[in-house]
Amino acid sequence: MRFFSKDDYLEKSLITFYFLIGLIEVVSQVYFDSYIQYTIKPLQIMLLLVLYCYTSKIRNPLFLINMSFLLIGRLYFVPNETSMLFYALIAIFFHRIIEIYYIAKLIQLKDYIPPIIASMPFFIYFLYLVSIPDNILIESYFVLVIQIILISALCGIVLSQYLLAFYRKDIWLLIFGFMSLMQTFVIFIERFYLTDFKLVSLRIMALVLNTMVCFSFYKFVIATEGAIQ
Length: 229
Fold this sequence. Notes:
Layout (H helix, E strand, L loop, with lengths): L5 H26 L5 H19 L5 H17 L7 H22 L6 H19 L6 H27 L6 H23 L6 H29 L1
């Protein structure tokens, strides 16, 4: 019979609490004022940072910086206003730059040609999505194209890593890439195509995906750091 150590119990408790906060975030989106999200989102990110600092032997500052920019972007996404989209995209821009650099460093990426080739289908697809609606502000459109390049680059790295050098620890990278792709698609549909309908289901889906994206990224980082040591 296997007994959990005190460290295992604390880690599992933190993970359970993290997903509980994610559930509360979804419930508050449906039944309460959306501005409660200004409290819930920082709490969820802070909990993930505590979990990382507790389980990681390296404790890379890039994880903290990456999650901080993500939190800022998420807070700007709370108001369902197109005018706030520009500031959210700026924060997410820095988050994505750091994230891509962090992942490339962790997987020790040396050949950039396969990721570039693998990123092209994603770039063409998302560029087509944002070229159709006419309610995008000009200043937001430029930043949005940069975001498309970055999410395409991220998906290209994940796909090329899966096809060329897949290891067991990379399953979390694959999950993270897939969830990030789905989250970006849902946000694009909600913000640019169905803004007049205000579908709660899409916002809930985006929140659930974000919880999974952050957790899978954390698991990938921990698994990769463990393999490096």
